[in-house]
Amino acid sequence: MELVNFLIEHFYLSMPLLVVIILFLYSSSNKGGKKISPQTLIALSNADDAMIIDLRDSKAFEGGHITASTNIPEKDLIRRSNEISKSNKTIILVCEMGNVSPNAGESLNKEGIKDILILRGGINQWTMDNLPLV
Predict the structure, then answer these.
(1) Which residues pair with 69 in a beta bridge?
(2) Amino acid 27: pLDDT
(3) What's the CA gap between 93 and 118, in Å, rounded?
(4) Is the pTM of this model over 0.85?
(5) In Å, what is the CA distance from 133 to each residue of 62, 78, 110, 126?
(6) Could you give the angle at the alpha carbon of 12 between the alpha carbons of 8 and 15, nearest 5°?
(7) Which of 32, 56, 58, 134 sees the fewest Cβ atoms within 10 Å?
(8) Helix (H) / strand (E) containing 118
């Protein structure tokens, strides 16, 4: 309760802090590319408008992956970015839980690849939605 009273009494300090927090959260949410749902990924894939890049290691990829996805482990992403840049399709990055893809998207942005989407929640969300892996 004291914190709330302090923030109210010192609104001239509280407001800039609130603005900084909002800007930080906004920039973090858009890091690396726009987040999409599994349903959006399916629609893009069915329309053949997407190149799906699975960033997990090859063992995890072989254990189950999204149909038509390409395995490029995150550690090899920059070295193999020429494979991605040749594609005229939207790039969709997929990782285990959705926390590696934003950093990978930032790396690809620095390489000049701009049309990047990220599967929100990664393969974990995909399986929680009872969607198939091959």
Answers:
(1) 52
(2) 67
(3) 5
(4) no
(5) 10, 26, 31, 9
(6) 80
(7) 134
(8) strand 116-119
d(CA 92, CA 45): 10
List pLDDT tens digits, range 113-128. 888 999 999 999 999 9
CA dist 4 and 37 (Å) reads 37
DSSP state for residue 55 in the 8-state scheme? -
The encoded tokens of residue 17 equal 């802090």
**What are 14-67's pLDDT values in tens digits?**
888 888 888 877 766 677 889 999 999 999 999 888 999 999 999 999 999 999
Give the integer Cα–Cα distance in Å for 28 and 49: 26
pLDDT, tens digit, 9 for 90 and up, residues 87-113 = 888 999 999 998 899 999 999 999 888
pLDDT of residue 124: 95
Number of C-beta neighbours around residue 96 at 10 A: 16
How far apart CA 9 and CA 110 sit, in angstroms, is 44
